[in-house]
Amino acid sequence: MISEQRIFQAYYTKSEPIVSYMVDLLDLNGTETIFEPCAGDGVFLDSILSKYETVKVDAFELNLSAYNKLKNKYSDLENVSIKQTDTLTDLDLEFLCSMGGKYDAVIANPPYGAWRNTEDKASLKRRFNGFYAKESYSLFLYRSIEALNEGGKLVFIIPDTYLNLNMHKDIRKYILTNTKIKEISLFPSSYFPGVNFGYANLSIIALEKCSNYSSNLNNSFNIYKGFKSVEELGKNELQHLTKLNFKQENVLNNDGHIFLTSKNQNVSDTIRKAKLTIGDICDCATGFYSGNDKDRLKVLSKSIRNSKRYEEVDKTKITYDCSSRPLNGIETEKVYVPIVKGGNVKYFKADNWFMEWSKEIVDFYKKDKKARYQNSSYYFRKGIAVPMVSSSSITGAIIENRLFDQSIVGIFPKNEELIYYLLAFFNSPTCNKLIRTINPSTNNSSNYIKKIPFLEPTPEQERIITENIKQIIEQVKLSGNYDSDLENENNKLINELYGF
Ligand SMILES: C[S@@+](CC[C@H](N)C(=O)[O-])C[C@H]1O[C@@H](n2cnc3c(N)ncnc32)[C@H](O)[C@@H]1O
User: Which controlled-vocabulary keywords does the entry list (predicted)?
Assistant: First the structure.
């Protein structure tokens, strides 16, 4: 059963500092017509009406019982109108938007990732010009900007993923070209009572609708972060806050229109100015999935982490040397091949996992609906395995004569000689700063990895790093450990090359 709270994403803004910061950002004078697209129990309305009795308010709420409570609460107020409706599909609102909008202000804490069925998603996608329909908050944002009149103001509290994720590219472009951003504050989701989604931070964005394209591109605004507590929101003069100034034109010109919110300007500049990226010099591909790992994936021994669900492999049936690249399966008895799985291990992963790879089963993988026999031209080649998710820093381990699974992005340099240098790079703090600026969440999917700038090392840098890495790999193979001086020297050289 999905709870009502989950369906409606009814997490109310029970935080006085957040509510008053957001209402202050609207900078009201009492004459405005205001829209609240997902009113909940009316926290924003209460705050606004207590200061500005004379404003006019239209509030929408989908959930019948929340709607009834609102109706009751504001029954004495003629200037407050409540409607039970789905804001995303409401036809009156859609019509009003098509006429250019009418509201002087919109304020909202819209549902994040609200639950919708697939049919709904497809129709929303059509309705919203192909905008990404799985994550509802961006649709609320789009519709609400449309609903503003020229010069109208909007304040939203939403996850910060619209600043960087590829799927939100269109909404970034829309905001950058149709509005003037006033300010954005970034803070941990734990500031929001009852919510703590580890995957992203929250943001409060304030903007003003404007139809003048060139004046929008000329507009500059600040992003604030580094708050020590929720009470500091809006206290932008505090010394310890990080204040990053952006011109909308520069953000629009970034690849994917991403907001580069690294504290270190050097990192952002390197990404912005990159002549070559990892995507230019490497092929990046996600790996294989059997469709049923429980039956087809085997583990070397039960002492391996997270191996409870899997059987031990019959060690007499392993083909360790896959240099012949058996893409169509193995015809001998030795039907198990090593596979590299996710999990953050630097430089070299021991062969702990094995995939069933007989000719018959590979034929099956190729046809099975659940299996993913994808990017097979990279199977068993020499490359670098980067786990798709990294809890702390990004890591890379060498893959050679092995399969890699779908939790891995396999990176295959076009010039194979660069592989050792790149292995050091993917394990370096420099690379971590770059990827976390490109995408601040823990996700390293290939679209983001491809955007990492590549600066060519000097022959001397490449030589030293390659020698160090070869030693590190040997040491890891023998003992599971390596001499950290070698790694430090590599990191230092890469730091000198990039300047951070
Ligand atoms: C995250 S809550 C926020 C409520 C309130 N604005 C606040 O900050 O406390 C989102 C609200 O939107 C409502 N809602 C969800 N989907 C909606 C939709 N499609 N149209 C209108 N309201 C919706 C939910 O019922 C919930 O009350």
Answer: DNA-binding, Methyltransferase, Restriction system, S-adenosyl-L-methionine, Transferase
